[in-house]
Amino acid sequence: MHRLVLAAHFSITLRAAGGTRLVSEFLELSGLSAFVGVSDGAQHALNVALETAVVAVAAEQRTALAEGMPARAVTVCEDETFHPGICLVNIEPVSNFIVLEQYAADRTAATWTAALQDACTGLAVEVIQSTADEAKALRRHAETDLRAHHSPDLFHGQHEVSKATSLALARDVRRAEAGVAAAQSALGGRARGAAGVRGAHAPPARASTGLRDPHWRRPERAGRRGSRTRPRTGAAERGARIDPRARRAVSPV
User: Fold this and answer.
1) Which residues lie closer than 8 Å to 48 by C-beta, 6 or more apart?
2) To pair with 44 at 20 to 30 A between CA atoms, which of 18, 70, 100, 202?
3) How many domains does the chain contain in total?
4) Is the pTM of this model over 0.90?
C-alpha cells in the first residue's frame, strides 16, 4: 500500500507535473481512500517528504556514478527561468541529465561560469559547446570563460530569418484583407439595390394578412383579358369578311 501511494506521488507530481489533488482523486477512484487519508494536508506532507528524499538520493547517486564515469565531451543547453527568482538551468540533451539547477542573485557571465564549474565538480566532462539564446552574458560565458562553441537556439535563428520577410508578407496580407473587405461591401450594396428594385415593383398586399389583393391585376394582363372579352361580331360583319369570290358563287345575279 505504501509503495502504491509513493508511486502515485512520484508519477503524478514529479513526472507529470500534477498536484496532490490529482493524487487524492486517484486514491478515491481506486478505492484506496478506504485505507489511506486523502486530505490535502496529509498528501502535501507526504509529497514534501518525497521531494526531499529524491534530492538526497540524487546527490548520493551523483557521487557514486561519477567515480567510474569515463571522460567525455558534452554539449549543454543553458537558459534562465524565473519562479520567482532567477534560476540557472543547464541540461545535457543526450541523456537529459540536469547538470545545473540553482537560484542565483543575477545572470551575469561570471555567475553562470562559477555555478557551472561548481556543478561539474567530480564529473569527468568537458563542455565543448553551449546552446543558448543570444544574450551577451551567455555568449561570454561560453566563448570566453569556457572556450567552447556557442550555438544559437532554433527560435532566435528563425527570428532573424523572419525579420527579412515578415514585413513584406504582412503588407501583402493586409492588402489582400482590404481587397476582400471592399469586395464584400460592394457585393452587399448591389444585393441591397436589387432588393429595393424588386420591392418597388411588388404588388400591394393586404395589411392584415400580407396577401395580394385578388382584384388587382397587372395592366398588360388586364389588356389581354379585355381583348378576349370583346363582343362577338354580328352576322353582317361576318358576311363582310367572306371572300368576294365565294360571294359571287352564291349570288343569284
Assistant:
1) none
2) 100
3) 2
4) no
